[in-house]
Amino acid sequence: MDVELPDIPFPLRTYGPDGHWSYEDGVLTGWAGPRQDRFVTPTGEALDPASDAPRLLGAPEGDFQLIARVTVGFGAAFDAGVLYVHVGDRAWAKLCLEYSPDVPTVCTVVTRGHSDDCNSFTVEGSSVWLRISRTGRAFAFHASRDGERWTFVRLFTLGDEKETGAALVGFMTQSPLGEGCVVTYDRLRFRTAWPADLRDGS
User: Fold this and answer.
1) The CATH number of the domain where 66 resides is what?
2) PANTHER family annotated for this entry (predicted)?
3) Predicted pLDDT of residue 45
4) How many whole angstroms separate alpha carbon 61 and alpha carbon 142?
5) Among 23, 65, 91, 112, which is 20 to 30 Å from 166 by CA?
């Protein structure tokens, strides 16, 4: 199913399990079902590499920033709302507001064959601003408590410039251990530029 959002200048398409995506009055809403996640464990334990979660993705061109305020209806450990970038079946990354495992936390996962897992900082309440940026072959993750001052979280790549230039970018919901959760995304913004400085808070 294709979805068009007035604040996003490219069409979005649903991937994975049904996320019951909806958009009304500037708010995008998605649902994760029980035990839905995307994570390829580096330890060879537990989680299925073929696991999947609801995604709503599109293909922006050139340099960009995708920004949203993410609010999660936490119910279980590792429930999360995610900004997501996808280059291939084993080349993708997540910027998450996650219950990790008992406090809301900004965390990231970068998957190149197998996933890593990195917690950045905790958040009071159930909302935070997230931002994905791209220039050339590079991606950057930032997070903000107020949508004004941004904390640099991560800089990485998922392949060469041709591969990353064709990346799919958008939204994901997950509930790896729980019975499901709802995530809302509002204050959506899209900019056709890479941040001027990754570390100065802008």
Assistant:
1) 2.60.120.200
2) REGULATION OF ENOLASE PROTEIN 1 (PTHR35332:SF2)
3) 60
4) 20
5) 23
